[in-house]
Amino acid sequence: YILVGQRVWHLAFTPDQKTLITTNGNSNDITFIDTATDEPVQSLTVGQQPWGVVISPK
């Protein structure tokens, strides 16, 4: 169990799979999770009800 914002709607891994990003719709933020430790490392407020996240390989 990893504590992130409220109501995770979508998830995405970075290309190296070292970071998992969640979009937290009800708390209006995204959370970056270190996959080696399963710990959140940063949350960013992004605006009203973020729905999805897309990761570019570059």
List keywords for this structure.
four-stranded antiparallel β-sheet; mainly beta; 58 residues
Rg: 11 Å
Indicate the low-confidence ranges by residue numbers. none
Number of helices: 0
Overall pLDDT confidence: 94
| Overall SS class | mainly beta
Percent in strands: 35-45%
Q: Would you report the number of β strands?
A: 4
Order of helices and strands: EEEE
Helix content, binned percent: under 10%
Largest beta sheet, briefly? 4 strands, antiparallel
Distance between the amino and carboxyl termini: 30 Å
The strands making up the biggest β-sheet line up spatially as 1-2-3-4
C-alpha geometry: globular
Please describe what this structure looks like.
There is one protein chain. The chain starts with 7 loop residues before the first strand and ends in a 13-residue tail after the last strand. Strands 1-2-3-4 form a four-stranded antiparallel beta sheet, with no helix packed on it. The chain is built from no helices and four strands. 0% of the residues lie in helices and 43% in strands. 14% of the residues are buried. β1 and β2 form a beta hairpin. With 58 residues, it is an all-beta fold. The chain has a domain at 8-45.
